[in-house]
Design brief:
alpha/beta; 240 residues
Length: 240
Amino acid sequence: MHKKSIEVCLTPALLNLYDIKESVVVVIDILRATSSIVYGIDNGAKAIIPVAHVEDCLNYADKGYLLAAERNGEVVAGYDFGNSPFSYVGEKVKDKTVVLTTTNGTKALHMAQAQAYQVVIGSFLNLKAICNWLKTQERDVLLLCAGWKDKFNLEDTLFAGAVVNELRKDFTHFDDSCIAAEDLYLLAKDDLRNYLHKSSHSHRLAELNIEEDVQFCLQLNICEAIPILVGDALVALKAI
């Protein structure tokens, strides 16, 4: 039986150091892209199409899709919404396709898509669901933290640490960034929000007055959906 390994890539800038062509890559952008994607798919969105640039959204404008664009934490003027999870409630997204671009998350997604065997989306909202699924896969796993503009960030690393902690019994090889991520998570897990007050992104988001979003994104296991990238669209794993 294949000895499965887990690695943590702490920023997309380091992705070229990993061989992921046979791996499942979990893309992580806790505040807020991957949390919103999980929540949207869980609430019945038909698909979420990640695109790299704000202008790319416009290519879909005449298809009846919802267009979502965020840059530097704010909704881009003229778009239906950004990447606040509260925009992804059932009454807005059920049976709809959303085209989404964000500062960090969609970039990491496209980088993973170009190289990985399979790409799925992780957040605290679907932590247990995604860990249970990863346990059943006979593949190595890379946890790809979207970071902030190619720099390390705390919240994505904490989530990676939570996954490592959950999967420790089921995998045999861990790299040093797994150990560091898990240690940080164990330090923070009893009060994630309080720990994240130290983070730079937390301060950025506080200035944008979206504390509710932060609190929401740190909830554990309120969603069952695992968004998976099929072609250019993220869809519910169970729908495949």
